[in-house]
Amino acid sequence: MSDPQAQSAAPRDSEIAQSDLVLGDASQSLPRHEEQTQSQPETAPSSSTETPASLPPTCSNCTTPITSEKSKPCPRCHTTLYCSRDCLKADFKKHKKGCAELAQKYAENADVKMATTRVPPRDSRRGGLQKWQFDT
């Protein structure tokens, strides 16, 4: 009669041999996959398509392209451009929701110099000595 341990060891040995084959195949196919990914060139975006940065700015209301001379930024936030004062008025109901936040960011980042309303004090010696000051 045959030994029961030998019979149970034989199937286990064949399972191990099969798992080694599977692992061996996988370990050999892994470098090939790396070679395939390295050999494939990365596709760069085509230069013929225009990016949003290269497009001319458009009016936020009527979306017509505007030139830098004719562009009128929002007087509060300075980020939204319009082609005319009429477009600014027409779009302001939609724009004013985000305008306050954008205006606050603009004020923090922009170097804005406010005009003073205070008149400088008059200096009495400003014009030099007067003739009457020598007669004393």
UniProtKB/TrEMBL annotation:
Report biased composition (Low complexity) as residue ranges.
37-58
Which PROSITE patterns would you find in this protein's record?
ZF_MYND_1 (PS01360), ZF_MYND_2 (PS50865)
Spell out the residue ranges making up region: Disordered.
1-59, 115-136
Q: Where is the MYND-type domain?
A: 59-99
Cite the SUPFAM superfamilies for this sequence.
HIT/MYND zinc finger-like
Where are its TM segments located?
A: none
Q: Which UniProt keywords apply?
A: Metal-binding, Zinc, Zinc-finger
- GO molecular function term, any single one: zinc ion binding
Please identify the protein, giving its name as recorded: MYND-type domain-containing protein
Q: Which is one Pfam family of this protein?
A: zf-MYND
**Source superkingdom:** Eukaryota
